[in-house]
Amino acid sequence: MKKTFLCALLGALSVCAAAAPLKSTSDSVVLYKLGDFTFAALNNSEGEIKNELIGSNVIFAKYDGWNKNALNYFVLDTGKEKILFDTGLPAAYGGKLVERLKQTGLSPKNINIICITHMHGDHIGGLVDAKGKRVFTKARLYIPKEEADYWREKGDALALSVFKAYEGKITFFEQNAKVTDFITTVPLFGHTPGHSGFMLESAGQKLLVWGDILHADLQFRTPDFYLVYDVNPELAIKTRKAILERAAKEGFAIAGMHVVKPGVGTVLKEGEGYRLNSGI
């Protein structure tokens, strides 16, 4: 009774609506300290790239795990806000976002901001339910303007359903925009026309949520390798090489939606290519 009364009394300040700090109750949820914040890597599933998805003719040596990948999404807990990065597949096609959020102690209503790297179905599918209704009733979406324009022009059904469901709740950002004081957008075009990353910074630590810079482990070693999903392969390769080199030189952490579980690490230069060192 006292708790109910207190929540009612403080409701206008949203004190009781705020979720507790993130937790991990599953091996599919890994927590990291990022400066003053907590960063959670949520793994939806793991898999392998099929041969028919290879778009390039690059010659490469196969090794154990060369085609391993995953489907991840991430949550940043600042203590005041819960910020989600991408939303995975629709639930009907294997999306486990709501389940994974529950394993961190959250529900969709606790998410304040959702940052979208691009609008492929395995990144925006969790935004709407089977009836096209919005899943995150209290969240504002941040979507790259170039990305939104591209999918709107194509008449993509899923993208259009997202625009409709979240009408009035979407910010279509320009390049190098500020989402918050500690999140800056980074143009990473090529995979799709508006594909973008999000650079997070707290207490001197940086982490780049880089979306689909790569889809398979091989692309660390062989950045010229690409898949049929890349809208502009040449630009995707150029972008991948540039961001891998920058990450290796500057030392910031990265989080990738298709990087093998848990999808977070630092990039190290190795010979003519790179490798991932897991963890922040």
Summarize the structure.
Helices cover 22% and strands 30% of the residues. With 280 residues, the chain is α/β, with parallel strands linked by helices. Strands 1-2-3-4-5-6-7 form a seven-stranded mixed beta sheet. Strands 8-9-10-11-12-13-14 form a seven-stranded mixed beta sheet.
Model description:
Helices cover 22% and strands 30% of the residues. It has seven helices and 14 strands. It has helices at residues 2-10, 97-103, 121-124, 145-154, 157-165, 218-221, 233-250; strands spanning 29-34, 37-48, 68-77, 82-85, 113-115, 140-144, 170-173, 178-180, 183-187, 196-202, 205-211, 253-256, 264-270, 273-278. The chain has a seven-stranded mixed beta sheet. It has a seven-stranded mixed beta sheet with strand order 8-9-10-11-12-13-14.
Percentage of residues in helical conformation:
10-25%
Mean pLDDT: 93
Q: Ranges with pLDDT <50 over ≥5 residues?
A: 1-17
Largest sheet at a glance? Answer: 7 strands, mixed
Class from secondary-structure proportions: alpha/beta
Q: Tell the overall outline.
A: globular
Give the SSE string: HEEEEHEHEHHEEEEEHHEEE
Per DSSP, what share of the residues sits in E-state strands of 2 or more residues?
A: 25-35%
Number of strands: 14
Radius of gyration computed on alpha carbons: 19 Å
Total of DSSP H or I helical runs spanning 4+ residues: 7
Q: N-to-C terminal Cα separation, in Å?
A: 43 Å
Task: Give the strand order of the largest sheet, numbering strands 1, 2, ... along the chain.
Answer: 1-2-3-4-5-6-7
